Structure prediction request, 290 residues.
Amino acid sequence: MIPFDWVEPRSFAEAVASLDPEDPTVRPVAGGTALMLMMKAGVFTPTRLISLAQIEPHYSAITVEKNGALRIGAMATLSALEQSSAVAEHFPVITETLLTLSNVRVRNVACVGGALAHGDPHMDLPPLFAALGAKVLVRGPAGVREIDVDSLYAGYYETMLAKDELIAEVFVPALNGAKSAYMKCTSRSADDWPALGLAVRFEVEGHAHIRNPRLVVSAATEKVTRLTQAEDILKNAEADSVVLKRAGEAAAEEVTLLGDAHGSASYKRELLRVYLARAIRHALAGKSAQ
Ligand SMILES: Cc1cc2nc3c(=O)[nH]c(=O)nc-3n(C[C@H](O)[C@H](O)[C@H](O)COP(=O)(O)OP(=O)(O)OC[C@H]3O[C@@H](n4cnc5c(N)ncnc54)[C@H](O)[C@@H]3O)c2cc1C
Prediction:
C-alpha cells in the first residue's frame, strides 16, 4: 500500500479545516468500510485521510424530538440507529431497513454520514431517507447549508458535497401517521446488495386514499431518483389494483434502468413494475408510526 497521512482532529471544525477543496485524494473517513474497500481494490489512493472518530460525541447522537422529527449525527453507527428504541417506535421503517443492510460487523462501524456520502446507488439508506423527505446538514468553510437527500446525488458515486464539506447531521421530518416502506429486492441472499431499492412515503385518508406520495428508486438507476410520474398517478387516488398497476407501469417507463451483476435492466424493469404496488400495499398494511 502506498503510504498516506492519517490525522485525527478533535473537533468537527478542525476536521473541516483539514480538508482540501482542490485535492480529491484528501478524504474524511468515518467507519472506513467503504473507503478501505476502494483502497484495497486500488481505485482510491489517498494522500491524507481525516478520521472523524475523535470529533465531539454530539455528532454520534440520535434524537427523536417532541414533535416526532429525528436528528441523527453523521457519526452515529448503523447499529446504534438499528438498536434505538425511539427510532423503532417513531420510524419502524428505518429499523426494518437496517436489519438487512449488509451484516452486523459492517453496521457496528459504518456511520450514517458515510452511508449517505459514499454515493453508491446500491445503498439502502439514501433512497429511504429521500422518500422520508430527509435533509443533510452540511458544514464547510463558508458555513452550514441543508441539502434534501433526494437532491444529494449528482450521478454514479457522485454527490453535491464540495471536497471541503462534511455532513454533520441528518434531519428526518416526523411521520405524523404517514405510511412508509422500503423494499429491498435482492437476487441472492436477503442481506446482499439490492438489485432494486424502492422506498415510499405517503399520507392516507380513509382506507386507501393517497396524499402527497414520495416514491424513490435506487440500485437499478445511476443515482437515487424520484418517480414523479408514478407519484402523479397515485396523488389523491384510491390505491386500488387498477391505480397501483398504472403507477407501476409508469414507474418502469419513466427512469433509465441499468443492468449489473444483480440483474439485467429488463429484469429490474419488471421488479420495479411489480414491487411498486407491493411497496404501497406493504406500507398500507404496516403499523402507523407516530
Ligand atoms: C461486506 C459489505 C456489505 C455491504 N452491504 C451493504 C448493503 O447491503 N446495503 C448498503 O446500503 N450498504 C452496504 N454496504 C456498504 C456500507 O453501508 C458502507 O460501506 C457504509 O455505510 C459506509 O459508511 P462508513 O462510515 O464506513 O463510510 P467510509 O468508508 O468511512 O466513507 C465512505 C465515503 O463517505 C465519505 N464520508 C464519510 N463520512 C463523511 C461525512 N460525515 N461527510 C462527508 N463525507 C463523509 C468518505 O470520505 C468516503 O468517501 C456494505 C459494505 C460492506 C463492506
